Amino acid sequence: MGHDKLVHIDDLSFSKYIKAKEIELKIEDIADAIREDFHDKYPMLLVVMNGAFIYAADLIRKLDFACELNFIRIKSYHGTRSTGKVDIFMPPNIDFKNRHVIIIEDIIDTGTTMSAFIPELEKCNPASISISSILVKPEAHVHEIDIRYPGFIIPNKFVVGYGLDYNGKGRNLQDIYQLAE
Ligand code: 5GP
Ligand code: MG
Known about the structure:
With about 180 residues, this protein is α/β, with parallel strands linked by helices. Helices cover about 20% and strands about 35% of the residues. It contains three helices and ten strands, in the order ββαβαβββαββββ. The chain has helices spanning about 20-40, 55-60, 110-120; strands spanning about 5-10, 10-20, 45-50, 70-80, 80-90, 100-110, 130-135, 150-155, 160, 175-180. β4 (about 70-80) and β5 (about 80-90) form a beta hairpin. The longest helix has 19 residues, at about 20-40. The two termini are about 15 Å apart. The site of guanosine-5'-monophosphate has 19 residues, from β4, β6, α3 and β9.
């Protein structure tokens, strides 16, 4: 870490925190676990836009069995703090009935987003709902969320890169960066 240059986005500075190679290895483990549970069940990956798009792209290419891919937009975040307000844009033409849905998230922070979305999804009568998030911040959880396929458990500090943004920037960084002190 110490030798890496800081990345500056608007008013904030970030230092390298999780390298792309570590992320790749973690995703292989997650893919193995998902394969074991769902390889014969034609699961539906439901990607929460925008933050999870890179994680989803990497994960789905590690899954060597039939799986469907769909996207949903849920917005609950502004700047570096969770707002508590959740906007869900349910896609109109997806039939979740009797499907095994795996929600793909970038990060579970307070859990507000998932605790608002899971009941909405349950109304569509899927066969099962499970969650995979490449990052989990347990210190920030205010809702009990069962994350079946977690990636990295990280402290309660703001991160960017690998799909995650600050003010709409930084999603294209290959590694994950953490707010510098
Ligand atoms: P939650 O509803 O669990 O508090 O937060 C969910 C959303 O907030 C995440 O999907 C993500 O978009 C955003 N978020 C939470 N923590 C961070 C963070 O450290 N960095 C970034 N860029 N987004 C975050
Ligand atoms: Mg997200």
